[in-house]
Amino acid sequence: MPITHVMFDLDGTLLDTLEDLARAGNHVCEEFGWPTFPLERYRYKVGNGIDRLIERIVPAEFAGDERVFLTARDAFRAHYDAHKFDHTAPYPGVPKMLDALLGRGVALAVLTNKDHAAAGPLVERFFGRRFQLVQGHLDGFPPKPDARITHHALEEFGADAAATLYVGDSDVDVETGHNAGMFAVGAAWGFRGRVELETAGADAIIETPADLISLIDTR
User: Fold this and answer.
1) Once rounded to an integer, what is the mean pLDDT over residues 158-164?
2) pLDDT at 80
3) What's the 3-state SS for 53-101?
4) N or C: which end of the chain has fewer CB within 10 A?
């Protein structure tokens, strides 16, 4: 079946957001007097939504403390909202790739575990109106890779899963695609790298954004 729709992860796939996420996380740690983490450690702390990120930076002695968790989460959101554009940028070749897909009549969407309120402004700032749908985390839906949020996004997107690619940089993204019946494409330039994508069973792995055009042209 020809590919008519492509759905993308955001962090680590379209945008390099790692430094701004790490700075927000370490800001929380400093505010609470907790140990901070090197930027590279955040590659494996992000990807499952803000709740899991906060759980991963809270010291073990505060695990399960709802007051600490909620206060830390609020502090992260406030700092990240104020600084989410500071160091973030599209990966090289991404805007050109998106334009090439649009030129082929392919519809584009974003499905991310990032807070919905943060995802929309980031996409609009860096990509304008290229995407028909930008879907961040919604209360009432478990985060991806749970299929419920993905099926919701597919319905809103007007997409048939069998004719849709899901592109992302982590094992979460591979599972997201597979759980909803999509062809899962691993973006090896992102936060996690090729080995994780291979281990997760990605249907294809691409090294550069331009490779996605070649992949679609040969399907």
Assistant:
1) 97
2) 97
3) HHHHHCCHHHCCCHHHHHHHHHHHHHHHHHHCCCCCEECCCHHHHHHHH
4) N
Residue 159 has pLDDT above 90, yes or no: yes
Helix ranges (DSSP H) in the chain: 18-32, 50-57, 66-83, 94-103, 116-127, 147-157, 171-179, 194-200, 210-217
In terms of pTM, does the model score above 0.90? Answer: yes
Residue among 32, 16, 138, 18 at smallest CA distance from 75: 32
- Mean pLDDT, residues 51-61 taken together: 96
Tell the residue number behind the tokens 């040969």, with chain if given.
218
Q: Round to whole Å and give the CA distance between 12 and 2.
A: 26
- Percent of the chain at pLDDT above 70? 100
φ, ψ of residue 73 to 5 degrees: the values are -65, -45
Is 9 noted as a catalytic residue in this protein? yes
Q: What is the CA radius of gyration of the chain?
A: 17
Distances (CA, A) of 96 to 82, 93, 103, 114, 158: 28, 5, 10, 24, 24
The pair of structure tokens assigned to 131 is: 């995407």
